[in-house]
User: Fold this.
Amino acid sequence: MDLESVAVHEIGHLLGLDHSNVPAASMYPTFIYGERKRGLNADDIQGIRALYGF
Assistant:
């Protein structure tokens, strides 16, 4: 498991994000072994904007 990808996902939860239905999003509920999701997908960004209004 890529620790940085898991950290990005968990930080999303700390910020108030729920799981996403978009497989490419960092907030997707499962990881494939060896997969890296270190950046934010448009769905992740949209979720943050919805919560914090920017």
Remarks:
- The chain has a mean pLDDT of 94.
- Residues 1 and 32 are 8 Å apart (CA to CA).
- The radius of gyration is 11 Å.
